[in-house]
Amino acid sequence: MRYIRYAILAAIAVVLIVLALANRASVTLHSLPEGMAEIPGMAVLDHSIDLPLFVVIFGGVLIGLLLGFVWEWIREHKHRAEAARRQSEVTKLQRELRRTKAQRDEGKDEVLALLDNTN
Fold it and tell me: Name one Pfam family in it (predicted).
């Protein structure tokens, strides 16, 4: 199974390398459309940068993945909070059980108390 995973990762790497080599042409990215840059006060936000196309493609994929991870992490917050609440409840109940057993075994012989705790 491990070799299949490595073969799939190698195939993905080859595809990404071929994609990068095929898209080396430079493109210009603008932060605003041409018409918006002429609006008073918007010239401050008007920036442009020349990048290879594969950097733009991979950057878009990376940003999409990061946004997806953050969105999913926020969406699952209620499940993590519930799990933490239940874990604290389990810890509290275990503490209470130990305390109850200690009170029950208070007057008993130590060996008998140990034997009761093994069950």
Answer: LapA_dom
> Do 64 and 101 belong to one domain?
no
* Number of folded domains that form the chain: 2
* 102 vs 108: CA distance, rounded Å: 10
Beta bridge partners of 30: 48
Cα 46 to chain centroid distance, Å, stands at 33
The H helix count followed by the E strand count for the chain is 5, 2
DSSP one-letter string for 63-86: HHHHHHHHHHHHHTHHHHHHHHHH
Are 41 and 55 in the same domain? yes
Task: Say what the pTM is.
Answer: 0.63
Q: What is the residue range of 118's domain?
A: 79-119
